[in-house]
Write the structure tokens for this entry.
Amino acid sequence: MKNKSSPECLFCKIISHELPSERLYEDDEILVFKDINPQAPFHVLLIPKIHISTLNDLGVENVGMAGKLFLTAKYLAESNDLEGYRVVVNTNQEGGQVVYHMHMHMLGGRQMKPSLG
Ligand code: 5GP
Ligand code: ZN
């Protein structure tokens, strides 16, 4: 599903300030905020400001925004002195997705473990 926003969506509520979050970066297209349950010393979520449920709902019209998610991860790594980091997009139940507003996890600040799955 793809919409400007979705009333029941947790991350849409964070975007609209209905729910609080610790914001690191935002512009007209994307928002970056700290994960509430960090799995590493640095753990943020990079999300589109429009409601896109999963990576499978991304369209060609979203490639600029999607590219910006990656570039912003790079800039955040630089500004937070992260030597290395990992980005992950869990997709659908089998992919481990819990919140159905597409998001990119960015983890860093410690040695990542070899296992991905
Ligand atoms: P998923 O499993 O869907 O890829 O990841 C969802 C992530 O959202 C989890 O890492 C979880 O800790 C985070 N999260 C869930 N609810 C909230 C919230 O209300 N605020 C913030 N900042 N993060 C949340
Ligand atoms: Zn949403």
User: Anything to note?
Assistant: The chain has two helices and seven strands.
